[in-house]
Specification:
With about 140 residues, the protein is an alpha+beta fold. The chain has a single domain, classed as Nucleoside Triphosphate Pyrophosphohydrolase (Alpha-Beta Complex), CATH 3.90.79. The chain is built from two helices and eight strands; from the N terminus they run ββββαββββα. Strands 1, 2, 3, 4, 5, 6, 7 and 8 form an eight-stranded mixed β-sheet that branches. A hairpin with a 2-residue loop joins strand 6 (about 75) and strand 7. The N and C termini lie far apart (about 25 Å). The protein binds 8-OXO-2'-deoxyguanosine-5'-triphosphate. The site of 8-OXO-2'-deoxyguanosine-5'-triphosphate has 14 residues, from strand 1, strand 4 and strand 7.
Length: about 140
């Protein structure tokens, strides 16, 4: 089972969404930036590393954004996603994996087309809202 780690980065009450460049099947769809956890790396550290690599964005990683049941989000039978709330004071600067970024208020999250596995996450955030401070 491979693990992906990503961050729901919050700034000024908005969440960072990033549009994927590829592969073709998912190009143009939006996601929480992140990527695969490397051997020996924690998911939390992977989320922080991927944000730096993909968006040159320094983030503070906070509480895990878990489903109502369980710890991770099952993307497909061989892949699970660990998602963390994060905060930043920086500006994203996409390095090649994404061609557009947006800061979306909770009531704007539905305005972009998310990766299929993320729909359930978006619905949960719409129900629960953003964390009080982004901190755990
Ligand atoms: N980062 C991220 N990936 C997601 C989300 N939702 C979702 O289904 N995925 C899937 C898409 C991909 O199959 C996988 C992430 O893999 P990736 O290809 O971005 O990983 P990576 O940057 O490490 O790239 P690589 O090692 O495969 O080259 O997780 C999400 O919100 N964020």
């Amino acid at each position: 089972m491979r693990q992906v780690a990503a961050a729901a980065v919050v700034r000024d009450g908005r969440v960072l969404a990033a549009r994927r460049v590829g592969p073709p099947a998912v190009a143009g769809l939006w996601e929480f930036p992140g990527g695969k956890v490397e051997l020996g790396e924690t998911a939390r550290a992977a989320a922080q590393r991927e944000l730096q690599e993909e968006l040159r964005l320094q983030v503070e990683v906070h509480a895990e954004l878990r489903p109502e049941v369980g710890t991770w989000w099952q993307i497909n039978p061989g892949l699970r996603l660990r998602l963390y709330w994060a905060t930043t004071s920086g500006e994203p600067d996409p390095t090649g994996s994404h061609d557009e970024i947006r800061w979306l208020a909770v009531d704007e999250l539905h305005e972009v087309e998310w990766l299929p596995a993320d729909h359930v996450i978006i619905e949960q955030i719409q129900r629960t809202g953003l964390p009080e401070s982004g901190r755990d």
